[in-house]
Amino acid sequence: xxxxxxAPGTADPDAPVPVAPTPRPPTPRPPTPxxxxxxxxxxxxxVSASEHGRVGSDGTVYVTxxxxxxxxxxxxxxxxxxALAFYRLRYDGLVAEVDLxxxxxxxxxxxxxxxxxxxxxxxxxxxxxQAVGDLDALVARLDSLAPAIAxxxxxxxxxxxxxxAEAKKVKSTLVEEAEQLAQGSDWRSxxxxxxxxxxxxxxxxxxxxxxxxxxxxxxxxARTTYTRQxxxxxxxxxxxREAAKAVKEKLVVEAEACASSxxxxxxxxxxxDLMTKWKAAGGAHKDVDDALxxxxxxxxxxxxxxxDAANSKLDEVFAANAEVKRALLVEAEKLLPVxxxxxxxxxxxxxxxxxxxxxxxxxxxxxxxxxRFKHVEQEVRGAEDDRWQRSNPEGHARATDTVAKLEESLAxxxxxxxxxxxxxxxxxxxxxxxxxxxxxxWLDQARKSLTDFSP
Length: 455
Fold this sequence. Notes:
Elements: E1 53-55, E2 60-65, E3 68-74, H1 80-107, H2 112-127, H3 135-183, H4 189-203, H5 209-258, H6 264-281, H7 286-333, H8 341-357, H9 363-390, H10 393-423, H11 426-452
Antiparallel strand pairs: 1-2, 2-3
Helix pairs in contact: 1-2, 1-3, 2-3, 3-4, 3-5, 5-6, 5-7, 7-8, 7-9, 8-9, 10-11
């Protein structure tokens, strides 16, 4: 460590001190060196200089240590007290240096290695210092710093071990997440996350070589697997997009070829089929897909716009047809209720011919109009069917036969009743009465049906 600079007006104490010169003619005496002005230093024990050093009669300055006396400098002329004060000032500088080192070690400002190195350097400076003071005490104090340095070394070692343990835990977590990404198919955000994992890995300290190498091998393998699969995915996706582009280009050509067609029905079906194929083709690259869709949509708009314009004209015709059909409905509904089925049938047939000739009505009105017209048709047909049933010879014959059989059955049951009453057989009499009552009800219905038939 650099020693404090000498005070102004003093010779460099580390420079060689000249021995007494050979007598010569008197020369002007140089000014006697004066001790430097006192500097504020760390407090040091106040002891008598005679305890730690002395100045010989020849101006040699000695310091006393446990190893004995040793020379620290020369003070050929001047006050010996001033010489001791000067070398004591150097000692005070060493005390300040030792104090500063101790404070830095206590504060943890130095690594254990730097603290050990600097303590050894200062100790060497103290043991060979050209200063007068209790150098043994300074050496002892430097030696007393060793336990603090050792404790700091143990703490640093434990801290490093904890950091490495935490780093191992974090790296293991990064490896597991990377392996999960490698097994998935998140090709967009997964790539960003994999880069973040790598940056985080680089910020962590290295572990012991076997552990670090093993974890890195897993991490690197996961990244390689993910990157390879991602490239394969986008390669396959690019092939699909190119295929979709080819399909859609053909669909656009077909759509544009049909844009001027006036075959509204069949061309409308063609466009529906083209749209189904468009959706099934998948997506091309966005810019390509957007450009093709713009052309495809333009062709559709051209066709359907022309069809809508044509339909608008048809709507005017259909609206007029609807008015004709409403007038026909008024005539048809006058046939209800049907009084003469034959006349109603002939009249409705003529109305039906005029109804068909009127043409189509608007779609939103067609169902209501058709339902009203069909109702009249059903009523007319029902009346005609009923008239035919009444004039049916076979039906009349069946009704006549039924009446005759029921009358014959009643006569037979009446004879049974008379016999049962004459014999006093109440059970058979009751059965006969019940049968007679049922047959009479049936006979009334049969006779009513018979009267419904036309003569």
